[in-house]
Amino acid sequence: QLQFVESGGGLVEPGGSLRLSCAASGFTLDKYAIGWFRQAPGSERERVACIVKSGGATHYADAVKGRFTISRDNGKNTVYLQMNSLKVKDTAVYYCAAHPLCGPPVSAYEYWGQGTQVTVSS
To answer: What percent of the chain lies above the pLDDT cut of 90?
Structure first.
């Protein structure tokens, strides 16, 4: 089965950090741009970061710019999301997914995993 497996979520206090991992299963990452997405209860899924195939360019939503960093290790078939200075409003289930490009809408991405819960609370 072709999908991602996300991990690294948990409960953290405001201002804390987490590092999420996204491991590909059944395919290799190097043909795809990879996006990290999140979905809070009652909200639509939104893209927070994306990294191109080579890792040479990254894109971030305004809400996370300067706090989150996306990176990839194609040799390990894994993409990471380092999240610093976390805020309560970052609470959501975080997912990764693939597309040849970073630009398309959320619905165009493939290989969605089960997600990992991030809860920011004091």
So the answer is: 90
